[in-house]
Amino acid sequence: MKDDTRAAAYRFLDALTLAASATTVGDLFTEVLHPATASHRRVDPAERVRMGITDGTVRVSVGIEDPFDIVADLDQALSQA
Predict the structure, then answer these.
(1) Residue-wise pLDDT tens digits, 33-60
(2) Does the pLDDT value for residue 25 go beyond 80?
(3) Is 1 part of any domain?
(4) Are 49 and 37 within 8 A, CB to CB?
């Protein structure tokens, strides 16, 4: 995302209609999570940045839905972030 912030990441997550926001990934269906407040929330912020995990990072775990539907959902959410 152009705006590498938590606010932009949350706007993206809130705008998704097909993909589900999750705290962990590993389902059959597309899920997304915000590592800074989910999977890596206990990692020191400076260490997260060193690892390449910024406040604007969003992790996507692609599921079994139609690929065109997934891409369309990601595209429309990115346009709102």
Answers:
(1) 999 998 898 999 999 999 999 999 999 9
(2) no
(3) no
(4) no
pTM of the predicted protein model: 0.71
Whole-angstrom CA distances from 28 to 24, 57, 66 are 13, 22, 12
Can you give the pLDDT at residue 68?
A: 97
Question: In CATH, what number is assigned to the domain containing residue 27?
Answer: 3.90.1150.10
CB atoms within 10 A of CB 46: 8
- Report angle CA 64, 67, 72 to the nearest 5 degrees: 125
The C-alpha angle with vertex 8 and arms to 7 and 13, in degrees rounded to 5, equals 95
Q: Is 25 domain-assigned?
A: yes
Number of domains observed in the structure of the chain: 1
Q: Residue 26 pLDDT more than 80? A: no
What range does the domain containing 36 cover? 6-80
